[in-house]
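Q: Could you fold this chain for me?
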Amino acid sequence: MTDNLSRTTVPGQDNIAALRDELTQIALILAQHFDAGAPVEAELYQRLPALREKLARFEQELAALALDRGELAALYGISQAIGSSLNLTEVLNEVMDQIIRLTGAERAFLMLVAPETGELEFRAARNMDRETIAASSFEISRSIVKQVATSSEPIVTTNAQMDPRFKAQESVIGYNLRSILCAPLRVRGRVTGVIYADNRILTGLFSDRDRDLLTTFAGQAAVRIENARLFESIANAKALMDNIFTSITSGVITTDVQDRITLFNRAAESILQMPATAIVGSRFADALPVLESKLRPLVEGVKTHGEPVVEFETEMSLPDWGSINLRTSLSPLKDAGGETQGIAIVVDDLTEQRRLESRYQLFQRYLSPAVIERLPEDPSELKLGGQRQEISSLFADIRGFTNFSQQHDPETLMEVLNQYLAIGAEAVLAEEGTLDKFMGDAVVAFFNAPLPQADHVLRTVRAALRIREGIALLHQRVPPAYRLSYRVGISVGDAVVGNVGTAQRLDYTAIGPSVNLARRLQEAAASGQILLTHTAYQRARKHIEAQPLTPIKAEGISEPVTVYALLGLK
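A: Sure. Below is the predicted structure, expressed as structure tokens.
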């Protein structure tokens, strides 16, 4: 170890030793002559040339050492400077400024390979005053840049105007380029860009030493730039994801392997009435105990099996907010190895939707579904009036209900009435008829409006038979005292169908003689009997069994009305 150290030399060590020996000899001469009292000028004069030569060599060595030290200090400073930031723009500008300071160049340009196209794109350009160069002044030798990018070898020329490699290039002549220095940026053996520096005035500005120095610097800069580009890419991706998570209407919650919440987007804040600042970083069970308790079996299942759960609906109560309906979907968050590293929970608030659905279902109890579907989205489009068209009308009322009502209390009457009216309404809706109204103990309906029905007469007949069958089934379940019967009248003819009433209260109904005739037939029918007009019978006779009856005298009609008693379907 000692021998190795004793043989170790540093730059300039031999010249320093020689100068020390020379100075020692001069000191001895001075001491000897001083003791002897003899003159020393002649002997000292003889030694001065050798002393000057040694001093000159020493100065050269010191200059080289200072240059080496300066370059090392510059490289260290550059490494520190460009390593202090991950902002790509800051890193690129710092790299440019350091190149100009390091090489003495007039201008410096940095180009990076675009990931999308593979082409070199200018990303930074600076001058000796640390000012950004405008794109209109990008007057460089693109041939040299392309050669460096292709060969991955640096290039230096002391005078491009006279260099046989480049003097014929149009850019060199046209832009009056002289000293040029160009080096590749390499990361993991791949060229990621090019550094180009030049001086359009001075020749002989750059040397091979500058080329090697720039190449060393480019190696450091390439790694820093690539890190900054990756950081920028990740930051952009994160910003995009944040924007997506912020803008989507579904709440998004993510947890890690310790069940700690890592993401809680704006929609989740709105749905669950909790700020993200109070949620992120907390355990799921601690931050959202009610939701966690509802989803616990699903979360455990996703963790265990690694399979998503889609559209699970649940209801929960929030403090100061009340009950809400949620639809949740859960998916595992997996790493590159397929291991589950957390859970993603997507939450949709269905409270308003379920409220509207409940109102719609309630609305269906008051209007026929066909009428509801026909309603416009804009209430202002609803207008009074209607149109003339052929329809089949059905009137059905409960025979003997007036006497029945005198024997029972109002609560019992309402319960019994609803049972019978339900049978009539369900029979009409089953044949896709329009339930016009309930008139006391009567059901009023019509067919072929608002939607056209080519077989509307047959549908009306089938609805009447369904009423008869429903009554028979009801009689099997109720005491004899509650066994009432329907009587039904059916007619076919023109009527005006549309909205009647006022702007505040509308009814979708049918008005016309054929509607009144159906009511007169219903009033003339016996218990359990279904009466048809002659027209209704003729239109449905291929499908029904009916018995002709003696013409009846109907109120408001001068001539007797031919009627048929419906027996059933063929």
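A (continued): The two ends are 120 Å apart (CA to CA).
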